[in-house]
Amino acid sequence: MILISSALLVAYLTFYILVVYPKKQYITKMTSKMTSMVLGMTSSILIGLILGILLQGDFAKSTISAIIISFIFALFIAKPFGYMASTEALCSSLMGGMMGAMLGEMLPSQDLNLMLFFIDTIYIVSMAYTLMLIKKEESKQVKMPLKKSSPSFSFILSIIIPVLIVGIFNFIDQEQQPIQQDEMNHDHMHH
């Protein structure tokens, strides 16, 4: 599940860069600050959670690593919007990285996949909503007619399909964990 969450982060950041960077001139200052804050926070919570789980028992390393990696993500997120938005993204990522690492450290092992799935879902929804907002602003600036369909079919698909994919991998991972746990317990009894 950690691998899926990590791939999700990188894939969405890459998609974001490809979609948003060419449209930066259409995005207002308020939206750019909001985008930087929301995506800086949600991505850094996920980064912190992943590192908190991977480095469980070493809280200092997981927190420092989460903050550094989150800073890098935040810079990519806010780069097209200038210094004010970058500052907003960096501050959000600092807080999110620390909170995610703390969460990963404190969770009992049986709740790790559930929490990863939940934070993945929040990340997917916030990314989809932000991209929809940017598309709306672009259509206003370019005076393109925006299709009237409420709620947008593509918006719903951009949330439901990724959440289903992550959910399926989460389910598969949870099914395999008890098998591995039983094998470990069985081996322990024979020694």
Summary, kept brief:
With 191 residues, the chain is mostly helical.
Number of H- or I-type helical stretches: 6
H/E series, N to C? HHHHHH
Low-pLDDT segments, ≥5 res:
none
Largest sheet: none
Chain-averaged pLDDT: 85
What does this structure look like?
This protein is mainly α. The chain is 83% helix and 0% strand. α1 (2-20) runs antiparallel to α2 (29-54) and α1 (2-20) runs parallel beside α5 (112-142). The radius of gyration is 19 Å and the shape is flat. The model has no long low-confidence stretch (mean pLDDT 85).
Which features characterize this protein?
0% strand, mainly alpha
Blueprint (SSEs and pairs):
Blueprint: H1 2-20, H2 29-54, H3 59-78, H4 83-106, H5 112-142, H6 153-190
Helix pairs in contact: 1-2, 1-5, 2-3, 2-4, 2-5, 3-4, 5-6
